[in-house]
Amino acid sequence: xxxxxxxxxxxxxxxxxxxxxxxxxxxxxxxxxxxxxxxxxxxxxxxxxxxxxxxxxxxxxxxxxxxxxxxxxxxxxxxxxxxxxxxxxxxxxxxxxxxxxxxxxxxxxxxxxxxxxxxxxxxxxxxxxxxxxxxxxxxxxxxxxxxxxxxxxxxxxxxxxxxxxx
Amino acid sequence: xxxxxxxxxxxxxxxxxxxxxxxxxxxxxxxxxxxxxxxxxxxxxxxxxxxxxxxxxxxxxxxxxxxxxxxxxxxxxxxxxxxxxxxxxxxxxxxxxxxxxxxxxxxxxxx
Lengths: 166, 111
Prior knowledge:
The complex is a heterodimer. Chain A is mainly α. Chain A is 65% helix and 6% strand. Chain B has six helices and two strands, in the order αααβααβα. The chains are: A mainly alpha, B mainly alpha.
């Protein structure tokens, strides 16, 4: 059902009740209009939103059958996007090379962290070139990944070890 | 939701939608909240790249995100969430993502 049409038809029906009083369409309009008002009332009651907001919600609703992803997936994805955006902002880069991102997100939580990214730039594993964060030293990157694995995905522990070994 | 709060005026083109979304947040499930957060983050990312006025074919939205520098592993996951909402879209724009967000909220509360 299209609530946008319902509202429009309902308004017309109320404006010209006599002209349409015996019309089948008018009966449908009235029942649709009543349903719209009832639904708006229920939404307003359920949420505490004022009538105008409730009305807008009802008008915006549709037949969308899209399924939501599970909460863990969505939360993890959002954390990843925030981590990526933080690196872009903190390190002043416009792009992160996929190999560098894979390394940065290889921690236990799968989230890339700007402090770790900066530390890996400082120790020469990563570099910033032409606005892109990328692998500078493949050997150091592999060593960091191996230490990361040995430390249960803890970047800080892996970094501490690589600093001690340097 | 706070992470993108500073960009709110940039990521909502319709102020009424912003007010509606904010007022609705306390009544949403965690999964809907996280989906709203995702749609805000995607718009905040696009905005941070200075591409608020973008308009691309819906089928090329993932390529657009990658061209803006987003890692492909993240883009793949984003598209998993967004594609079911994009079924009838021909063109993707900031406002379309905003409308998907509002429709998501509306469908959850109006049921």
